[in-house]
Amino acid sequence: MTEKRPASRGTARRPKVVIAADCLDRLEALAEGAIPRDPDLADRLLEEIGRARIVPGAKLPANVVAIDRPVTFRDETTGQEKTVTPVFPENADIERGRISILTPIGVALIGLSEGASLHWDTRDGKRRVLTVLRVAPHDAAERLNAQ
Predict the structure, then answer these.
(1) 81-87/71-75 β-pairing
(2) What's the CA gap between 95 and 105, in Å, rounded?
């Protein structure tokens, strides 16, 4: 029998999450496939999906983090700002700032709006606060990749 992990990620109210319906099945399949390799990360992704408001892809607000949308965030612990593009695992390329959705930061960012802050746990178990500063449209990712 598997030990149940606490669902709480802190006492602060978590920000709202919005996910495009056209990515939903793929995200669920990725999370379920990750259970044997990384059950904690898979649980976090499934938890985020479960609490998300699902909208048609065409209605996903432009200021929401999504697959292939570059996002600039700040780590409130270090003050460091970073721009990354969440992608499906097969498109990840850390040197080009393309991070897999199946990473702690990918799971933390997906579905957040500009201005949202949340607690997240790094791979080495440190708790950080992350704030979404800007979300660029999908075509901005294409321009970045062409460089």
Answers:
(1) antiparallel
(2) 16
Q: Is 136 or 126 the better-scoring residue by pLDDT?
A: 136
Tell me the two tokens of residue 114.
């500009």
CB-based contacts of 126, cutoff 8 Å, min separation 6:
none
pTM of the model: 0.81
Nearest to 111, CA basis, from 63, 70, 144:
63
Rounded Cα distance between 60 and 111, Å, is: 9
Give the CA distances from residue 101 to residues 2, 69, 120, 132, in Å, rounded to whole numbers and listed in that order: 25, 12, 14, 16
Q: How far apart are CA 101 and CA 10, in angstroms?
A: 22
At which residue do the structure tokens 């432009």 appear? Answer: 62
pLDDT value, residue 11: 42
Higher pLDDT, 49 or 6: 49
